[in-house]
């Protein structure tokens, strides 16, 4: 048999390619949960990021023999550097973010029998620091678009016991601080900003933590600025910070002899401070990468019905993006339940997850009206009122049912990673009816 002509060879090759194409196309576009290829097959950026900078910093502290902030210099250096970074007049570093909040509340004179307005959509440490003061966390409903405390929902919640407001900048996005501060001034309340996830986030060009009386930060292992554990309080009120320093150091004055107040031992170690100073050498560049990728991903996801990036208020001039938060509408995904959507996304190599669950799930909160000490402080009637109000927050419950997010390290990937996230969402949406049957 003679060889086919070049023209015929091209025709046969093209025909064979066309015949094979549908099979390849079917594999490539089918969800991984249904046997297809995952969109993302590699690894996402790991966390923490470190190199010889951290190793040398730790070795320097070891060799100095000065491991305690009382005779070392690293904690002092970090406090000065973090105050510069945030623009605050002063900073006190603490052993962790929980104890930064604990310190600030004590210095603000939140005491047993007081009440503090707080969002329920937060990590439970925000509840616990109030409860450890034997004060009552009074929960404010959420803005379902931003997931954050809604200042308008605070109306009617103030009584003679109300001492302070604790707005929480969840995920690095700013609470509406204009609304919070207007309400605080109206009712003469202190404001402690829980900025444990919000480092250099900004409200109207001003770093969070400086709008209220104080701002509290965490440097726990998952955080964008990380020393395994660690925390800080910042303020533009230097007298407030002096008292924070005394409280975290067993009540000792730092500028003169004496013990002006009772306190605790909440000091950061020289090792933690050394790691934080090393981590700060990359912090601004990492933050810029997260913000650029988040803005690009916003533009992609806004084109997909049923996935809405969490609202960022106009006043939030910089988002810290500890979390990239979204709202999932299953009606746009053929009724696919959120749990199945998350399972499908993870099969595609995209680590979406559900975040905070309802505070109804915490037994210690449900049982608070029966707590012996709280019954003495608040009385049965007030605790019953509190329980009724605290567990009837429909917009917050909706947020708990609909939100999803992923962690900050994903935003350190290159731009193609953001394209893959959007591609995986589109793939899951296209096959949502099939996935609902798995």
3D architecture notes:
- The structure is a single chain.
- With 438 residues, the protein is α/β, with parallel strands linked by helices.
- It has a domain of 228 residues: Type I PLP-dependent aspartate aminotransferase-like (Major domain) (Aspartate Aminotransferase, domain 2), CATH 3.40.640.10.
- Helix content is 42%, strand content 12%.
- It is built from 14 helices and 13 strands.
- A seven-stranded mixed β-sheet has the order 1-9-8-5-4-2-3, with helices on both faces.
- Strand 4, helix 6 and strand 5 form a beta-alpha-beta unit.
- Helix 4 runs parallel beside helix 5.
- The protein is globular, with a radius of gyration of 26 Å.
- The N terminus is likely disordered.
| CATH level-four homologous superfamily name of the domain at 52-279 | Type I PLP-dependent aspartate aminotransferase-like (Major domain)
Order of helices and strands: HHHEHEHEEHEEEEEHHEEEHHHHEHH
| CATH class call of the domain at 52-279 | Alpha Beta
* Structural class based on helices, strands and sheet pairing: alpha/beta
**Residue fraction in strands:** 5-15%
Helix tally equals 14
Q: Report the end-to-end length measured between terminal Cα atoms.
A: 52 Å
What strand line-up does the widest sheet have? 1-9-8-5-4-2-3
Quick one: biggest sheet?
Answer: 7 strands, mixed
List how many beta strands DSSP finds: 13
Question: Any low-confidence stretches, pLDDT <50, length ≥5?
Answer: 1-27
Mean pLDDT, nearest integer?
93
What is the molecular shape? globular
Radius of gyration: 26 Å
- The CATH topology of the domain at 52-279: Aspartate Aminotransferase, domain 2
- Under the CATH scheme, the architecture of the domain at 52-279 is 3-Layer(aba) Sandwich
Helix content: 40-55%
């Amino acid at each position: 048999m003679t060889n086919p002509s070049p023209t015929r060879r091209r025709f046969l090759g093209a025909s064979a390619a066309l015949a094979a194409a549908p099979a390849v196309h079917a594999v490539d576009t089918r969800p991984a949960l249904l046997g297809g290829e995952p969109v993302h097959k590699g690894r996402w950026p790991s966390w923490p990021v470190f190199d010889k900078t951290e190793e040398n910093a730790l070795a320097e502290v070891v060799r100095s023999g000065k491991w305690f902030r009382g005779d070392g210099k690293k904690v002092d250096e970090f406090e000065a550097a973090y105050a510069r970074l945030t623009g605050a007049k002063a900073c006190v570093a603490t052993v962790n973010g929980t104890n930064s909040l604990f310190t600030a509340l004590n210095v603000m004179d939140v005491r047993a029998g007081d009440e503090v307005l707080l969002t329920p959509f937060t990590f439970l440490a925000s509840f616990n620091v109030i409860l450890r003061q034997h004060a009552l966390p009074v929960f404010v409903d959420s803005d379902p678009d931003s997931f954050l405390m809604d200042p308008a929902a605070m109306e009617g919640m103030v009584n003679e016991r109300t001492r302070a407001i604790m707005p929480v900048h969840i995920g690095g996005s700013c609470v509406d601080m204009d609304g919070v501060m207007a309400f605080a001034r109206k009712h003469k309340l202190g404001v402690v900003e829980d900025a444990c996830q919000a480092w250099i986030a900004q409200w109207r060009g001003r770093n969070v933590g400086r709008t209220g009386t104080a701002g509290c930060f965490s440097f726990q292992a998952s955080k964008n600025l990380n020393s395994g554990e660690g925390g800080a309080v910042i303020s533009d009120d230097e007298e407030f910070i002096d008292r924070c320093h005394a409280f975290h150091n067993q009540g000792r004055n730092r500028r003169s002899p004496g013990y002006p107040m009772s306190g605790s031992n909440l000091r950061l170690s020289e090792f933690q401070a050394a790691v934080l100073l090393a981590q700060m050498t990359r912090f601004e560049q990492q933050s810029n990468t997260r913000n650029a990728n988040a803005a690009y991903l916003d533009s992609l996801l806004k084109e997909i019905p049923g996935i809405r990036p969490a609202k960022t208020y106009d006043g939030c001039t910089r988002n810290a993006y500890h979390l990239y938060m979204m709202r999932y509408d299953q009606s746009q995904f053929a009724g696919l339940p959120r749990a199945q959507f998350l399972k499908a996304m993870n099969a595609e190599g995209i680590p979406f997850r559900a975040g905070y669950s309802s505070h109804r799930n915490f037994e210690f909160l449900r049982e608070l009206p029966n707590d012996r000490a709280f019954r003495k402080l608040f009385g049965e009637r007030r605790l019953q009122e509190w329980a009724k109000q605290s567990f009837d927050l429909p917009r917050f419950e909706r947020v708990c049912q609909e939100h999803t997010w992923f962690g900050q390290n994903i935003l350190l990937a290159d731009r193609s990673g953001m394209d893959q996230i959007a591609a995986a969402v589109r793939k899951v949406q296209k096959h949502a009816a099939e996935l609902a049957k798995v």
